[in-house]
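REVIEWER CHECKLIST
Item 1: Sequence provided? yes
Item 2: Single chain? yes
Item 3: Sequence as submitted:
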Amino acid sequence: MKQDNNKEMFPIVDEQGNILSAATRGECHNGSKLLHPVVHLHVFNSQGELYLQKRPEWKDIQPGKWDTAVGGHIDLGESVEMALKREAHEELGISDFNPELLTSYVFESTREKELVFAHKAIYDGVITPSDELDGGRFWPMEEIRANLGKGVFTPNFESEFERLFKQ
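Item 4: Structure as written out by the authors:
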């Protein structure tokens, strides 16, 4: 069975994104609340629908839930832009997109604390979800709103959706 690499090294940062030290994925996800940076990419099509990925059951955080199209950790020595391009290519097979930074903020759950760099892009090309995912699809905004609070989405996605796309 697949699983995350708990030995993978992540930068530990302050709330401005300055690197302070490094720790393993396992250390960052064990309740230590070590602040580590991540990237999110909200992928819209030209009809205004939002692509969401389905997290596989083997993931260590929020298995089986629908989540932001692209989400991933920034590796030690990697910039936000590099991580965004790498994750978009790894997870969805897309590389020709123009990301727009929407916000950065700290997200905290019972297991971890992340400095999130949230972006959006309009993309009408082919999306090929990798085997890191259990697929994905475009959702009309009304369908997302109708399913908020029902355990369909990750808490992180719901929080970010409310913050960015409330209207």
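Item 5: Key structural point noted by reviewer: The chain has one domain: 9-159.
Item 6: Recommendation: ____
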